[in-house]
Amino acid sequence: MNILGVDIGGTNVKLGIVTEKGGIIEHGLLPTPAGGPEAAAAKVAEWYGGRRKHHGDARAAGIACAGLIDGVRGFLYTSPNLPGWDNAPLGEIFGRRLGIPVAVDNDVNCAVWGEYVMGAGRGTRHFVAVTLGTGVGGGIVIDGRLYHGAQGLAGEIGHHVIIEGGPPCSCGGRGCLEALIGSASIAARAVETAARTPGSRLALGAGLTVREIHEAALLGDAAAVETLAETGRLLGIGLANVVHILNPEAIAVGGGVAGAGDFILEPARKSMKEHLIGDILSAVRIVPAELGNMASFLGASMLALEKQ
Ligand SMILES: [Zn+2]
Fold first, then answer.
1. Which of 78, 84, 255, 262 has CB 3.0 to 4.6 Å from 132, enough for a Cys bridge?
2. What is the number of domains present in the chain?
3. pLDDT tens per residue across span 190-216
4. Residue 299 and residue 169 share a domain
């Protein structure tokens, strides 16, 4: 039997009918309705109702959602992208509307599980994934299971502190990995670097995106290359911390910023190795994530299957 996968973001709900092996039979995109989780669940149920006629009943649904979520209870504490959704029992709401078993987890955890089952983490037992974008997220698989922690909130790799008293972070802290390598910080660093690099294409800086920095790096722009290398160097410190604590077989790096590829990953591998206590730990593979923006909804489906 198939599975219904759903990825709820602030703007859109991505959803689809997925086979037990992760093949996408049909997928769709709905605008996230105003009216909170009940309205969203009703919309998803309507979409699913239309597809059931063609594809039959789904055996379960996996719901990925941005925000602080207790994945064990299927409870959303709060989501910066979904105002009015605070303290929502998503598992209960979607289960009632859909009439099938529902698994709920944080969108990053779902993406990590997707990568673990059918992407960059295939074949491992101990796996970590980090997503780099506006924010920096993470998720952890230990001995073949997604690790949730005591309150379901484990894996906040973006908020471990790299530089005490460093730049302010979205969480209210300072010097977190996210404060150093979130996309806004990368853009700010690029502008600074370009200002002291004669002839840099990045000199006009306002509104600069990481994609533009990457494009400039591909054309050999020294300030762009330096900015991405510094991003990788800081990421590498964070990865070394993760490796010391978890000793994973592989760490996948995904998200929009990771589109800069080896301009970030090579310096990250080098910096990580410099910070590791022993050569043996550097057996960990630092690899690009493979599932792109399908990772959360595919991972949610695979997680629903796992929890059945
Ligand atoms: Zn933080």
1. 255
2. 2
3. 999 998 888 887 866 668 899 999 999
4. no
Say if residues 4 and 301 touch (Cβ distance below 8 Å): yes
Contact 155, 108 (CB under 8 A): yes
- Examine the domain organization and report whether 27 and 170 are in the same domain: no
Cβ 191 vs Cβ 202: under 8 Å = yes
Residue 152 structural domain? 120-290
Tokens of 67: 């925000």
The rounded percent of the chain whose pLDDT value lies above 70 is 99
**What is the 254 CA–ligand 1 centroid distance (Å)?**
19
Q: Do residue 176 and residue 256 come from a single domain? A: yes
For residue 120, how far is its CA from the centre of ligand 1 (angstroms)?
A: 26
5 alpha carbon – ligand 1 mean position (Å): 30
CATH number (domain holding residue 298): 3.30.420.40
User: What's the pLDDT tens digit per position in 50-109?
Assistant: 999 899 999 999 999 988 898 888 999 998 889 889 999 999 999 999 999 999 999 999
- Collapse the DSSP code of 147 into the 3-class scheme (helix H, G, I; strand E, B; otherwise coil) and give the result: coil
Question: pTM of the prediction?
Answer: 0.91
